């Protein structure tokens, strides 16, 4: 284990020792240096983090002085509280400034010349992504988002009539829609296992898949972290189960990449699609597709490339015509920012922020959490509801009266909204979370004021 790595099982934070007190002094000076270098710079963040090596990631997660430089590295307005990072995360300043620079640079020379240089720089970005994911750079394609990456597999995977695809009721709605399209077009069978909210254990989740598999199952689609409640799935156990039966697995990692600290070997999946503009904090319009080397040839791209792109090469999935290279180059700065903080430290900070609000609200009798807080089962996303309070009305109230942005949860059977999804980020402060908790506790005690109290959900809106 590296010195900065924490034991996977969590554990109780030790009391400060002499060594730790010395460390805290060092943190103080590192933060001073960060202030001098400026929070906008990567060096400022690196300086703030440089002395966290003496702490476990769980200890570092609680050290507010370390995170204040990180908070200032973002330009997110403090006139509102953004607890909807599950949608798309704001990039830190170092990323948005780099993208603006790249946009300027690419207008200075003929585009062909610029592209030659940009493509060679993209080689470095690709290597950085592959290292973070733990695969060969030749096994990844850079896509425009997770949707493009995941649909490449969902449309490209060869399925005959009556072949079955197994997924869950809580996989992303556009992916389910893609599979429903294949059901109509190709006559496949789509089976969705129902995910309890919350499930009792990881064993429960494995058992659901075990029971859902039939001799006709060819492909499993599963989210590493669900978009509904932030539930983390035991991906490797499900992949191992599937592989023993000759079934391929596509993992929807839209919420896990750059959020949880893991490598491909921890999943052992055949295909992985993710957004980079979510938790990696890369520019909008960036995603990544991984395909295990020996499967690349059998998955055709959605848009046919010219023959020079080769049927066995990942570049064939990037043939989408001309687009700005600025956002793809900006992935490089996002990787540098991510690495400066450290993947495990970032994961633990996101988990700590979630626990800061969720443990407090869990103590209120009428408030219900739909996400288990055990470390292996969740991280920076969790869902919450108040008995008798319509989540859409609550969402509108929090925004209109408190400028707190949340995401409305999930429509069971397309009709019933069950919860609010709360997803803070590295720039979120503890006072912001306290303010959110106070607003929720007030509603739990007094109900919503008018006109929110009389809000009637328009159920038909969600029928299409
Ligand atoms: C689980 C999940 N999969 C896929 C997507 C699609 O991501 P993108 O917007 O990058 O295409 C989302 C978006 O929120 C998601 O939550």
The CATH topology of the largest domain is given as: Aspartate Aminotransferase, domain 2
Q: In the residues, how many domains can be counted?
A: 3
Percentage of residues assigned to helices: 40-55%
Name of the top-level CATH class of the largest domain: Alpha Beta
**Percent range for β-strand residues:** 5-15%
As residue ranges, the low-confidence spans are: 1-31
CATH superfamily of the largest domain: Type I PLP-dependent aspartate aminotransferase-like (Major domain)
Q: How many beta strands in the DSSP annotation?
A: 15
Order of helices and strands: HHHHEHHEHEHEHEHEEEHHEEHEEEEEH
List the helices and strands and how they pair.
Elements: H1 18-37, H2 42-50, H3 57-61, H4 64-72, E1 81-82, H5 93-106, H6 111-133, E2 140-143, H7 146-156, E3 164-168, H8 173-186, E4 189-193, H9 202-212, E5 217-223, H10 235-244, E6 248-252, E7 271-275, E8 287-291, H11 326-341, H12 343-362, E9 367-369, E10 382-386, H13 391-402, E11 404-405, E12 407-408, E13 411-412, E14 416-417, E15 420-422, H14 430-446
Parallel strand pairs: 1-11, 3-4, 3-5, 5-6, 6-7
Antiparallel strand pairs: 2-8, 7-8, 9-10, 10-15, 12-15, 13-14
Helix pairs in contact: 1-2, 1-4, 2-4, 2-11, 5-11, 6-11, 7-8, 12-14
Bound molecules: pyridoxal-5'-phosphate.
